From TrEMBL:
Coiled coil segments of this chain: none
Alphabetical UniProt keywords: Cell inner membrane, Cell membrane, Chaperone, Isomerase, Membrane, Rotamase, Transmembrane, Transmembrane helix
Membrane topology of this protein: Single-pass type II membrane protein
InterPro entries per record: PPIase_dom_sf, PPIase_PpiC, PpiD_chaperone, Trigger_fact/SurA_dom_sf
Domain PpiC: start-end pairs: 346-445
Organism (species): Aquirufa salirivi
Broad class of where this protein is predominantly found: membrane
Record protein name field: Periplasmic chaperone PpiD
Any one GO MF annotation of this record: isomerase activity
UniProt record similarity statement: Belongs to the PpiD chaperone family.
Listed transmembrane segments: 12-32
């Protein structure tokens, strides 16, 4: 600053020149590329919502506040994935504050100060408040904690006061959102005729014989599809092909693999660390300081890697064991004995049988079914097999395995009490009842509160800097020698060892590309205004264990949908139409029984039978759940044959052979509720999408992050 003052004193012209140079340096060259707001364009615009511009400084400030809250709550800064999540949350909050608020205001929805007080410390406590002020020891919510907190709020740091203000704002917005969705819910009505129709679709049955010629019976190569036909189809069905901003790329990947010399040096490092760990006065601190992946010093049996468990019985206090290999990570351990933990750990499997509803009869049926399954297992049936066949939660596909868990409240209270009240391993003698239903439980690893003192050094074998430099030089030379997609394709033909990958239709805010997890730099390059289709990156992108050279092969524009954006999908649809016309024309000229028509038609024609098919869940054998065919057959009179018609998957001639109408019900409330529930879900989704569409949201975050 003193230097600039002195120069200004010497020469006003020189000072002005230097000042301008400094400004240009701070702004950067974007000023000349149409990206700076200084000369009329707005390079600071992160997005537009309902006509309101969101600028980068304001957006970034909110991101930083949210990041600070995350760090305060978790005790660590966010990684790349968490940072993306935080930015998404801030963006969604803008949508709520602007687009949704417009709708709420138009309806007069608001939360009064009295209502907010009631939600925080009154008679109708908001779930988030209840969660924040629940005593972790007793599991009970105490309103006095809230009142005491609020009394002390003004004495707390400004950051905490602002955090509480943001919290109150969030629960108020949640309440308004609930009011809005309740209005939607109340606007959904199902009459008796609709409920009756749904009941009939689920319970009326029909049987039929039909001739079916699938589209796939004609080879795709036999049907030529012209660009004019594709253009015509797209013009007629524009509503089915929504435009998106996307980019497609190809890229060459140059893996960085440790050399033989790197491996030798790594083993020497492991050996030295093992010797040093053996004599370290504070083994746990030494292990933590020298570990690539830190692990706790005290480990429950469930937390110990399987390969270590198998040898744990041979460990002696003070001994060094390993290295144990897990992928590219090698671990050495110093064993310090055992101690008793305050928590128990157990491993169990279960089969959950949930009642259809909360009525006593439904609960009784579920309990009886669970007890029958338990009896089968006691008689020798496979627990895992019965879990796969009967389990009603996500564990079923894994034979009911719940893995290891502790008695720390991670499981529902009744379940935890039953499991940890059982001694040993094996099938529990009775079913366990919880709020979710009835559980048949097998203890696969008995409860234990033994904790093991294991000072672990985990080192991941990695390439040396020399290896990294060598591969980078190779990738950089390739990027410079092959600056276009044409040159890249020519290089691929010459050198079969080049690893080429594709990524189709990447979206603007994509964070990963195939197995590349932190690929924002590549995505931003692909969406840069200066990158054209056919361009190579001319620079090397660095990933964890590889270097990438990318090429832009295609782009789509949400405001200008072209055939090429959906060429394959539209081609398949047009080809199916042409196949349907060809098959229908041939079938229409043939007379006789279905078998005779099939015989005269030739290869590809099938005659099949179905029995007791319902309209809502029907399957037509080879044709599958063809909705068009099901509707056509259901609408036929018994004993009548249809004309030739085209379904979803092929061409049909059908005969309805029998029909059994579902008996009339006195009360269709169950079906009314069923349809209404589905309607509410759809209405909520569609209205939310309509709000977003109406706000004409433009998301430009991809330009900055």
């Amino acid at each position: 600053m003193a230097l600039i003052t002195k120069i200004r004193e010497k020469s006003g012209i020189a000072a002005a020149a230097i000042a301008i140079s400094l400004i240009l340096f701070l702004i950067g060259s974007d000023i000349f590329q149409g990206r700076s707001s200084l000369f009329g364009s707005n390079n600071q615009e992160v997005g537009v919502i309902a006509g309101e511009s969101i600028l980068l400084p304001e957006f970034q400030k909110k991101v930083e506040e949210a990041t600070a809250n995350y760090t305060a709550q978790t005790g660590k800064g966010p990684g790349e994935q968490e940072a993306t999540m935080i930015r998404d949350q801030v963006w969604n909050q803008y949508i709520l504050d602007i687009a949704y608020k417009n709708e709420f205001d138009a309806l007069g929805l608001k939360v009064s100060s009295e209502e907010l007080i009631d939600m925080v410390q009154g008679n109708n406590i908001h779930p988030s408040v209840r969660q924040q002020f629940t005593n972790p020891q007793t599991g009970q919510f105490d309103k006095t904690f809230v009142i005491q907190f609020l009394k002390n709020l003004k004495t707390m740091p400004a950051q905490q006061q602002q955090g509480w203000a943001n919290f109150e704002k969030s629960i108020a917005q949640d309440r308004i959102r609930s009011k809005y969705e309740n209005l939607i819910r109340l606007s959904t009505y199902v009459n008796t005729a609709e409920a009756q129709k749904e009941y009939q679709a689920q319970n009326s049955k029909f049987s039929a014989r039909f001739l079916y010629v699938p589209f796939f019976s004609i080879p795709d190569s036999a049907i030529k599809v012209s660009d004019a036909q594709l253009e015509e189809y797209l013009a007629k069905h524009k509503d089915r092909f929504k435009g998106v901003n996307s980019r497609s790329i190809q890229y060459a990947t140059f893996p960085v693999v440790p050399t033989a010399q790197d491996t030798v040096e790594f083993y020497n490092q492991i050996k030295k660390l093992a010797k040093d760990l053996a004599v370290a006065p504070n083994d746990s601190a030494f292990a933590m300081l020298n570990s690539d992946v830190r692990t706790p010093y005290l480990l429950a049996y469930s937390e110990i890697p399987e390969v270590v468990k198998s040898q744990l019985g041979t460990f002696q206090v003070g001994g060094i064991y390993g290295p144990f290999k897990n992928g590219l990570t090698y671990s050495i351990y110093k064993y310090g004995g055992v101690k008793k933990d305050s928590l128990f750990t157990v491993r169990a499997s279960h089969i959950l049988i949930a009642p259809a509803n909360k009525t006593d009869s439904a609960k009784a049926q579920a309990k009886q079914r669970a007890e029958n399954i338990l009896t089968q297992i006691k008689g020798g049936a496979s627990f895992e097999t019965l879990a796969q066949l009967n389990g009603m939660d996500g564990t079923a596909q894994n034979g009911g395995d719940l893995g290891y868990f502790k008695n720390n409240g991670s499981m529902t209270k009744a379940f935890e009490k039953a499991i940890f009240g059982f001694n040993g391993a094996g099938l529990m003698p009775g079913v366990v009842e919880t709020e979710f239903g009835y559980h048949i439980v097998k203890i696969t690893d008995a409860k234990t509160n033994t904790a093991y003192r294991l000072a672990a050094i985990n080192k991941t074998i990695a390439p040396s800097q020399a290896t990294l430099d060598r591969v980078y030089t190779q990738a950089d030379a390739f990027a410079n020698a092959n600056g276009t997609i044409g040159a890249f394709e020519a290089a691929l033909k010459k050198d079969k060892n080049i690893i080429m990958m594709r990524a189709e239709r990447l979206l603007e805010n994509a964070t990963s590309i195939n197995n590349l997890s932190n690929a924002r730099e590549i995505v931003r390059w692909a969406f840069d205004e200066g990158t054209s289709v056919g361009d190579g990156s001319k620079k090397v992108f660095e990933q964890d264990n590889q270097y990438i050279v990318a090429y832009l092969t295609g782009k789509t524009d949400k405001d200008n949908v072209k055939v090429d954006d959906y060429r394959e999908g539209i081609s398949n649809l047009v080809r199916a139409e042409l196949k349907g016309e060809k098959i229908s024309a041939k079938l229409s000229g043939i007379k006789g029984s279905l078998e005779q028509i099939a015989q005269k038609y030739g290869a590809g024609a099938l005659v099949e039978n179905v029995s007791d098919v319902t309209l809502s869940t029907g399957m037509l054998n080879t044709a599958g759940p063809d909705a068009v065919a099901l509707g056509k057959i259901a609408g036929l009179k018994t004993g009548k044959r249809s004309q030739v018609f085209t379904g979803d998957n092929g061409v049909f001639i059908a005969e309805k052979t029998a029909a059994v109408a579902a008996p009339a019900l006195a009360d269709y409330t169950t079906y009314k509720t069923q349809i209404q529930s589905m309607g509410i879900q759809r209405a909520s989704y569609y209205i939310n999408e309509a709000i977003k569409d109406n706000a004409k949201i433009v998301d430009k975050r991809y330009k900055f992050y």
